[in-house]
What does this fold into?
Amino acid sequence: LVKMATLVASEQKPKVSWPLLEQNDLYVSANQLTRYEVQASRQQVNRKWVRDDGDQFLSRPMAVEDSVVHVRNVRGTRGVRITAMNKQTGEPIWETSVGVPVMGIVEQQGRYNAITSQAALYVIDQQGIDKGQIDGATLNPGRNQRQLNFERVAIREDGSLVAVNSERGRQWVYFNPKAASDRVLTVAATAGFDAKPSGDPIWLEDGI
It folds into this structure.
């Protein structure tokens, strides 16, 4: 073994990290994904970019053609995010979330509207039940952002559902079965209020 380059240690305590070396590019995942350029002739390791700072990576990144695929827990959410990103730029090519819990199900005219803790809506009809599978999310107003954990839920008799974000108390998601199909699920925020909720919301006449 021959030492090619070194990088000064910057962490205050040990942590689990996973490396991936692709030619002169070194990718290291831990609580962020960092790309380094290894310059053997100069015995240097130069940092090129950092992505997904604050997320918890769960395994070693994998090189697939011109992309790097990685798996992580996104900060302030539940479930696992799988992402393929451009090797050079670090920009996402595609990503999907798995294992995200369903926080509410509303039956409507023989269909079941399942809403996840990340504010994605999946519509399950009899055809999907018979096939044993469903298509992707019908609506996704949460847009896979960080700190999305809608788990404080209240469902009204007419099928309306509201849930408060446990990570951002002023943010809530609203399912309105009477709204237009592209507006049945919306995410909104209340100005000037950001305390974390300590219990489930309660429906009143015209609000919660």
Remarks:
- The mean pLDDT is 90.
- The longest strand covers residues 44-51.
- The CA atoms of residues 169 and 196 lie 4 Å apart.
